[in-house]
Amino acid sequence: KKELKLLLAFVIIGQLVFALLSSGYTKPFYRAELYTTTGAELNQFMNRDNLHKINEAAHYFGETMIGWLKFPHFVSDAAQALDLPEDIRINAHLQERQNMVFTLESVSEITRFDLMAFKDYMQTQIDDYNDYTKTKFVLLNADYSNTKIERPYTEGALITLLISFFLAGGVIFIRREILR
Known about the structure:
Elements: H1 2-26, E1 29-40, H2 51-68, H3 74-82, E2 89-96, E3 99-106, H4 112-133, E4 137-149, H5 153-178
Helix pairs in contact: 1-5
């Protein structure tokens, strides 16, 4: 009987907390994805036999760009330079080999113009890197998608219910098995 009351208390408290905080969960946001390919340019010292090495270099350079997005001020500098929303979150991952996906998320809409401006900003960063390292990397084949994400209240309430059951079960287990 005590366990049932504890379980019920966890569920009620969880649902009340979610009800108070649900506006943050259910608030719509925008996710825009920019699909690009990282390439390296042949120079006069390279030949077609080195194509595998050139593609491999472009692949590893993609990992370098992902690292740039982890620098403390890189995203905020890009947002400020491009007049993007202050709450923008930018991530990237390699889709396969040289293909990169940049993901931009914000509560404000992110337009195609914003994505192309971001691609151009990344290319200027790459150009600075190229000048310093005497390399020639580029971003190619830009395509994009833009989605408005809306999470329903019921989804959040269900997740909260499951978490409440899990936490209550953990407390009941600890009381029965460890603290007896």
